[in-house]
Amino acid sequence: MEKDDQHLSSDELKRQRNKEAAARYRERNREKFNQRMRDWRAANREKDRLQKREHRNRKIANGTPDEVAALRAAEIAKTKRNQDRCREQVFEAYGGYKCKCCGETEQMFLSIDHVHNDGAAQRKAGLYGGSGTAFYIWLRKNKFPSGYQVLCMNCQIGKYKNGGVCPHQFV
């Protein structure tokens, strides 16, 4: 028996040893364990979300201000990574980071355009939750439907001001 185990009751010691054995099993059978957990989370989506929310709330309630700040910073970073990944998937699905009209490749200038100029009507109808990330998530959930294209902001504004046709089309 280790020195740290001497102060534990027999039930506590048994629990600790079982916990250590479970950790060793998970380490030896990592892929099998991970697959089982993925399957459980898929079958118990709401329960999993509730448990994660409760765990987060406990960390916030019981954490020091520094721990809470670190948790929130990690959450912000994770959200940013997920948003960036979603944006990458959307642009890849619609032909990559290249304006379909003029060929512009600067990512900062590019966005997704509604081919039929019906974006405002779709937003007003509540088809998706707004613009930006909410729109990208909607596109991904709907398996990247047709009717959208990558355009730079110059072509988007030109198309808007020119009755649905980019001025590059007349050159």
Distance between the termini: 85 Å
Instruction: Figure out the total of helices.
Output: 7
Report strand %. 5-15%
Based on helices, strands and strand pairing, what is the structural class? Answer: mainly alpha
Determine the mean pLDDT.
91
Work out the radius of gyration: 25 Å
Shape: elongated
List the secondary-structure elements in sequence, H or E: HHHHEHHEH
What share of the residues lie within helices? Answer: 55-70%
Strand arrangement, major sheet: 1-2
What is the multimeric organization of the chains shown?
single chain
Unreliable spans are: none
Overall number of strands: 2
Main sheet makeup: 2 strands, antiparallel
Task: Explain how this protein is built.
By secondary structure, the protein is mainly α. It has 7 helices and 2 strands. The protein has a two-stranded antiparallel ribbon. The longest helix has 29 residues, at 65-93. It starts with 9 loop residues before the first helix and ends in a 10-residue tail after the last helix.
Brief rundown of the structure:
It contains seven helices and two strands, in the order ααααβααβα.
Please write out the topology.
Layout: H1 10-28, H2 30-43, H3 45-62, H4 65-93, E1 110-114, H5 119-124, H6 133-141, E2 148-152, H7 153-161
Antiparallel strand pairs: 1-2
Helix pairs in contact: 4-6
